[in-house]
Every structure is written in structure tokens, then in C-alpha cells.
Amino acid sequence: MNIKQYLERIGYEGPVDITFEVLSQLQYMHLMHVPFENLDIHYNIKIDLLHLYDKIVTRKRGGFCYELNGLFYELLKEIGFTVKMVSARVYDGKKEFSPEFDHLALIVKINEYNYLVDAGFGEFSLQPILIAPGKETNDPRGIFKIETFDGNYMLVTKKDTEENFVPEYIFSEKERLLNEFQEMCNYHQSDPASHFMQKRICSLPTSNGRITLTGDILKITEQGVITERKLNTEQEVKKELWNHFGIQL
User: How far apart are CA 53 and CA 47, in angstroms?
Assistant: First the structure.
């Protein structure tokens, strides 16, 4: 892996020391420059290092969790961080959680502290979340907290407008290998039941909001103000993918 080229891809120009400040800035810049997207969902996505590096760094594309966090893991490891991949199960809003390996997240250890790091969950934290039961983490995208759950998992929650902490996903702290996620990756790009199969999505946070293309609807949020526009042709879709996300299909 060419670390210099990867750092250029995410616009990072700072030091590469093993500190929380560097980790936080790397995650922030990764999220700001690499879109969460499923535009290749019908083309047999491969989650091996060479393919991911070519797609995300060389061709300047985005991806979904297995791709984004899978490659970000390699960057952090190459820099020298103590990092591991973990399996997460996403909350469905009905008091249930998805199957194992449904989401790939990272845990990074700095000194005696462990942090949940996620560059591939769409609208989520922009910075690492401290793994300390009951401890709240203030993030530019909200207030997050991690608690123990059901003996074998940790539960990450986010405070809503009514001051309630709402589940995002549960994760095990057991270290995993990238190839363990391949079966669920195949499911998400082939099974009609997968939400990734329902419609295309491409999303990127901005300094004051978010830009998201869902199906043929372009949604731009700025300072809490939302504007939406329907794109009537595939040519318009391709134009906006380039204008807002730097993606050329």
C-alpha cells in the first residue's frame, strides 16, 4: 500500500503519529472525501486489498462498510496503529439486530483506551467513540454512548431530539478477518431482501450538512435546511455524481 497516495486521496496532510488527534483527523478526512455508495452493487464487489485500493484510492470511488472500513483498517495498520476489524449487527428499529457480519467496524487502541472507529456507516459519528460503558462522546454529528449488551456485545447508541439514546448497532470485540465478511457482502449485492439492492445510494458529509443521492433524488442538507431535486435522466445522475462526489462511472 502506498500510504502517501492514500493520504492524498483523503486530503490529509498532517503528521502520522500514533495519537488520538491523528486518528480522529484521519477518520474525519476519510469520511469527508470517500463517499458511502453502492453504485457497484451489481458487479460482484470483491473485498480484497488490491481491489479495494484500486477502487477507492486509484479510481477515487467510494464503497460500503466492507470496502471503506476494510481498506481504512489497512491504512491504520500500515501507519502503526493497533487496530482490529470487528463484526457488528445493525439495529432494525424493531428491537431486533441483523445477522453477524452484517457490518464491519474497527476498534483502535491508543495507550489504555479503546475507540470505535467507523468510516463506513453513512450518517454516523465523524470521530472515534470511546469504548467506556456509560461515557458519552460529543461528536459533530451528535452525542454517542457505548454500553455492554447481552453479555457478549457492546451497544452503540445516539441521543435523539427527545434526549433518548437510540440503538445504532451492537458489536463484538472479537477480532475478525476480512474474508469472514465475504458471505454477507455477497448477500448484500445479490439478495433482493438486502436494503442495498433496493436503490442506488451515494452519500457524503459536508462541513455543515450532507449530500445524498438516493435513487433519482438528490438531497442536500445545509445548516439543517433540506433541499431535494428529482433527477430525470441517467445523464443528470452521472453529472451530479461527478459534481458532488467526484465519481465518474
Answer: 10
Report domain 3-188's class. Answer: alpha beta
Residue 42 has pLDDT above 70, yes or no: no
What Cα–Cα distance (Å) separates residue 37 from each residue in 175, 206, 211, 235, 247? 25, 15, 12, 18, 10
Amino acid at the residue 215: G
Return mean pLDDT, the chain: 93
Q: What is the pTM of this model?
A: 0.93
For the chain, domain boundaries: 3-188, 199-245
Cell numbers representing residue 23 in the block: 486518528
* Strand ranges of the sheet holding 82-90, from the earlier edge strand across to the other edge: 129-130, 113-117, 103-110, 82-90, 165-171, 153-159, 142-149, 136-139
| Cα distances (Å, whole numbers) of residue 201 to 146, 217, 228 | 28, 10, 14
